[in-house]
Amino acid sequence: MKSPDEVREILINKFKNNHREWLKETGTIWPLEINLNIPTEQDALKQPEGVKAWISGWKTWKGNGTLVWSERRWRSLATQTVPERLILNNSNDAAVWAGESERWKLAVERYNSMVQSWPALKDTLPRFFGVLADYNDQDFQSLFEVLTWLCANPDSNLFIRQVPVAGIDSKWLESRTNLVRDLFKAIKDDTSGENDFYICCGLRPLPKLIRMRILDPEIKTQLNGLSDITALPDEIAALEITPAVVFFVENLQTGLAFNDLNNTVVIMGLGYYVDVLGNIPWIRQSRCVYWGDIDTHGLAILNRARSYIPNLESVFMDEITLMNYRELWVEEKKQSPSDDLPLLTGSEKNLFHALKNNVWGYHVRLEQERICWNEAWEKIKQFLPPR
Description:
Layout: H1 4-24, E1 32-35, H2 41-46, H3 48-59, E2 66-74, E3 78-88, H4 91-97, H5 101-117, H6 129-134, H7 137-152, H8 177-188, H9 197-201, E4 210-214, H10 217-222, E5 228-231, H11 233-237, E6 245-249, H12 252-257, E7 264-268, E8 287-291, H13 296-306, E9 313-314, H14 319-324, E10 330-331, H15 346-356, E11 364-365, H16 373-381
Parallel strand pairs: 6-7, 6-8, 8-9
Antiparallel strand pairs: 1-3, 2-3, 4-5, 4-7, 10-11
Helix pairs in contact: 1-4, 4-5, 7-8
């Protein structure tokens, strides 16, 4: 016997699992019938008070849907009129039962308005139910107007903050690039597989810059005293310098902590943008040393960098360093998806697989800034060639 409360729980789960499909109103789900499980006479004899309460609960019930009653002629209990099934005629009825009426109405209204403007969104929009149901009016209107503008200007080549849509602040679009990209691709019926937001939307990305510190006094003099340079890759590549050692550090503060070193420069914070290193000719003449976080992404970046600098060495990216700073471990929120990094050394591969397999704990990570600077600096100086 299903009581109104039990039916509500059933419909809460159905809404949770099916609301995206309900938006499209596809299939033959409506009307939806829920069998209320009329007991047999034998079951009713075992729990007469329970059956009485069940019938009473449905008699006093008021809500969406059609309640169908039927008669049962029971020898011992006489003829009883009992609730047989509940019929829900549409998704609105189900949403009311699930306590989602207001969100559902708003989502349906917004879904219909967007599909009316862009029929190609019919199958994609349900993925973004939270946007339809929960965006405030201003954000939803901004989304609508951004898509409208992109449709009219698919190859604008503007920077993201130059998009002339009223009501969006400087960061509105930057925080919604995946949403806008996916919807605009659906509108264009773009099946190319390209997922770069800027390419998909015809916008111009900010130039990727390299930040480098010159640690050698003579090279600084050669560059008119410049010691901290942020420039385009082509401009860095065009520098006529020949440092003996180039350090690559993942985190900015580590690079800023470096003191002067003869014949040395340090490049900071490239992340997976290490691809640019293949286009800087003077790096190939230097001894190159990479120092990143001890986590799966740090090792993945090292592997990637080696495809451009085959002789790239690593420092402080080993099990001994990791164990020495156990008390300073943090959690790597999301590990690298890679399973194999072929350009790592044997010990680096072992470290990577141990981290991936949680040998020492869940998603272990040691940030490079946590290593004692005095210890780090002494080891860094060992990479310098003898005078």
